[in-house]
Amino acid sequence: MSFSYREELRGDRVLDVLTNEELGIRIIVSRLGAELVSVARLRGRNDWMGYLHRDNDITPAEQGWGNHATVMGYFLHRLKDGRSLYRGKEIAGGTHSFLRGKEWHLAETDLGNGVLSYEITREDFTSTEYPLNVSLTLSYRLEDESIRTSFHFRNHEPELSAHVGFGLHPGFATTASTPVRFQMPAGTYRRYFSPNNYLAAETQLFHFAGGQMPFEETKLPGSYILELVNVPGRRFRFFDEPSGRTVEFDFSEVPYLTLWSDGGSFLCVEPCWGLTDHDNQRAFENKEGIHIISAGGELARSFSMTPRMNVAQTIC
Fold first, then answer.
1. Where would you tag: which of 238, 244, 261, 268 has the fewest CB atoms within 10 A of its CB?
2. Is residue 173 part of a domain?
3. Strand 211-212 to 134-143 pairing
4. Is the CA virtual torsion 126, 128, 287, 69 positive or negative?
5. What pTM was estimated for this model as a whole?
6. Of 118, 38, 117, 67, whose CA–CA distance to 307 is shortest?
């Protein structure tokens, strides 16, 4: 494969542009939040078709959700009232923790393998945001036609285990007034109800034969939070019929999936390693789905998404 890279400055934002020249696939990453702000494919001479919500537009949104693909961690989604206790000490932060508001370090540009890697270390966040010495390397790799997103945590604490929740919050553009098409593979799922943005005691285990998501689109603003309990083929597909945009997902390593929209022309498909707080809040180390990294240990997880055009709408 032949890859090209360039650094771009727009106002006070530094962007990294990585392109697979042979396949005509391009990603643009903002170092603020290490956020993918564009996933695009070339469909004609200098005609790039973007897949993300507000693709390649980093100006402030006039209304509604204004992001593209927010990185979440070391806790994800909401801490109740913006704070919690971790081993008895207070932690606090925004809706998706501190990562999206930090300027990440560009750790590696590997043109031989089509990889951009970013890093956050203990020096980049306060003890209130997260109290332990845990670093994260986030990588985006152009892997044939796919974009593989990888999280690699390192716990530098010599004696303490570390608890983390993390994920990605990408929104995919839809055509206005067109029904959302999201296809799910057959399997057993558990739905977590969160009527006030926090988990209730109620869950629902259900078996699904595969196909178009079995959820009401009008209720996407309330989120559908799913655990992939027994889903052998974890390949999902988003499809926007008028534009021909299709995104296929390989969630082989993903335990949870959140589907959300604020009613705008997009669908967020969020692979998650952990869940939001319960309404009856638990200590951070006891959060649902929390991941534990042993002292001196590491944790690596990934998923891939493949942007396509005019692909058949069926899934097995």
1. 244
2. yes
3. unpaired
4. negative
5. 0.95
6. 38
